[in-house]
Write a structure and sequence with these properties.
Strands 8-7-9-6-1-16 form a six-stranded mixed sheet, with helices on one face. A four-stranded antiparallel sheet has the order 2-5-10-11, with helices on both faces. A four-stranded antiparallel sheet has the order 13-14-12-15. The protein has one domain: Ribosomal Protein S5, domain 2, CATH 3.30.230.10. It is α+β, with helices and mostly antiparallel strands. Helices cover 35% and strands 25% of the residues. It is built from nine helices and 16 strands. The termini are close together. The longest helix is centred in the C-terminal third of the chain and has 20 residues. The structure holds (3R)-3-hydroxy-3-methyl-5-(phosphonooxy)pentanoic acid. The site of (3R)-3-hydroxy-3-methyl-5-(phosphonooxy)pentanoic acid has 15 residues, from helix 2 and helix 4.
Length: 320
Amino acid sequence: MRAHAVAQPNIALVKYWGKRDTVENLPATGSLSLTLDTLWTKMAVELQETAGADTLTVNGSENKEMLGRVSSCLDRLLGSRRAKATVTSDSNFPIAAGLASSSSAFAALVMAASKAAELPADTLSLARWAGASSGSAARSFHEGIVELRADDHRIDVRSIAGAEDWPLRVVIAVTEAAPKAVGSSVAMIRSASTSPFYRSWIELQDEDLRLAREAVRNRDFEKLATVSEHNCLKMHSVMWTSRPPVVYWNEATLNAMETIRELKRSGLPVFFTIDAGPQVKAVCLPAACDEVNAGLAATRGVKEVIVSGLGRGARLLDQG
Ligand code: PMV
């Protein structure tokens, strides 16, 4: 009744920002992402038929804030009459700071819990369960470049290119390690009900997905860069025009974006993307990686730079 799993976070290029159904947590549109390899979340789940409550330890300390979400995820997966869970999570990067920690955390949690409970489930079912807790977590079950499709009732997820097929690099400029003030779920719901741009954001997603899919199929970096930066700026425009506004950027976020624009002007194959947090992710071809790393490390306000390739989907670990 004990199992371990590991999952890597993923960074979206065509973003998920909006829910079709807030109860089932179904995304309003599809999305497309890169699964990373350097960052990870390892999750141990132990199930015991004893009285008492679930417990959650994150990076060595008891965590009561995230316990509710973890318990609801386990209820959905195993039923509310399930055994009590002792959950231990370790990540090698800051959590809840816009580094997609919920994607790796919920993917690893669902993978480990289903094994601990000996639940027979295929990858797509696990991805759907994880997606019901964190939309982006569904994408962390697959390697490389991943597309999530959404219809009225459910999601479908698959890898459209492996890490070796197109070995992109992601250089992350960490500008603030503290947790963000507004969580993505709350912010998405606010955007849907208050931003005058929300409707057109949703309507234009299919076209961005088509362009990004085509760029991946043809290994067309320029085309992927154009659609990804545009998609990112549209999502942040929806956030900024929500009431009250959702602004995740800080001064160093803008500095890092400018560094990437300068590197691009000098001819390097690189573009930026930013999620629900102040960190800037530069996506580049391997030959540009060292220069992008050096440029971001020298940018005012950047606290740390993390370099990653594309990684594998969530998987079980042996220690179980
Ligand atoms: O999976 P959530 O609920 O943490 O939402 C993720 C939202 C973004 O990171 C901003 C976009 C995305 O597609 O990952």
